[in-house]
Each structure stands twice: as structure tokens, then as C-alpha cells.
Amino acid sequence: MHKFLKWIATGFNVGFVPNAPGTFGTLVAIPIVLITLNFSIFFKFLLFIAMFIIGIIASEYYQHYYEKEDPAEVVIDEIVAYYFIMIFVPYNLLNLILAFFIFRFFDILKPYPIKNVENSVKGGVGIMLDDILAAIYTLIIILVLRLFI
Questions:
Q1: Count of helix runs (H) and strand runs (E) in the chain
Q2: Can you say how many angstroms the Cα of residue 125 is from the centroid of all Cα atoms in its chain?
Q3: How far apart are CA 148 and CA 125, in angstroms?
Q4: Please, what sign has the CA dihedral across residues 6, 11, 16, 19?
């Protein structure tokens, strides 16, 4: 079970890349987006909920096992958050790219209240939740941009 949870938490070991593991972790979500492209929004949302719960469990386990607070190599949060964005944004190459860069911007910058959540909500829930907030910020920006593009 340990190896499986480690594998999930680290985005199939992508989180171990030496530089920008969160960025590479986000890229892992793209094949999931493409595979589920023609699935119903209901199924996509159920998949998101399942991935979110599994992400909480895997990241909580990893954090406790390795005694690290929000380890950089845990990238399941980026994967799940990016997938969440793409559930609600019409699929096209522009949206895929915009979502990627805007999400990475918010995930790295962590504007209010994302940083507060990261600092105050501990464990697997905290690891997952700050990225979901960054995803919500991303969704807002993309939906506003769509009004003008």
C-alpha cells in the first residue's frame, strides 16, 4: 500500500523531477482531461470527487510517512486542481494552455486567501484545498477572458 500511495501522491513519480515538480505534475492532468473529454459533466465531476478524496488520503499518508509539511514532490493536488478547471472550461487548445499558465501563476503566487489556507489547514486536506482555490481563481479569470476573446 505504501508504494501505491506514494505513486499516487507524487503523480506517478513525476513529482520527483528536480525542478518545477508542480509544473510537471500539472502536465500529468492533460492526458486525463483528453481521455475524459467526451464524458458527461456528471461523470467528470464524480471522477474529480474521487480523485480529490484519493488525493487527500495519499498526500496525508505521504506527509506523515516522510514527516514533511506539504512536500514539493506531492503533485496530486496540481493534477486534481487542473482537472477541476478543465471540467468547466470548454475544451480547445487555447483554453488548455491558458488554464495551465494561469493556474500555475496562482498556485505559485498564492494570493489571498490561498496562502492563508495553505498555512492554516493542515494535512492532506490543506495540501489539496489550496490548489482547488487556485483552480477557482483560474476559472474566474478564464471565464471573464472568454467574454472578451
A1: 7, 0
A2: 12
A3: 35
A4: negative
Write the single-letter amino acid at 88.
F
pLDDT in tens, 65-112: 999 988 999 999 999 999 999 999 999 999 999 999 999 999 999 999
Q: Which of 14, 131, 30, 38 is nearest to 86 (CA)?
A: 30
Cell of 92: 480547445
The pair phi, psi for residue 55, each rounded to 5°, is -60, -40
Q: How far is CA 100 from the centre of its chain?
A: 10
Residue type, 47: L
For residue 134 the three cell numbers come to: 487556485
Cell 486534481 belongs to residue? 80
**How many residues are present in the chain?**
149
Residue-wise pLDDT tens digits, 102-140 = 999 999 999 999 999 999 999 999 999 999 999 999 999
pTM comes to: 0.96
Given this model, what pLDDT does residue 138 score?
Answer: 98
Cα 90 to Cα 139: distance, rounded to the nearest angstrom: 11
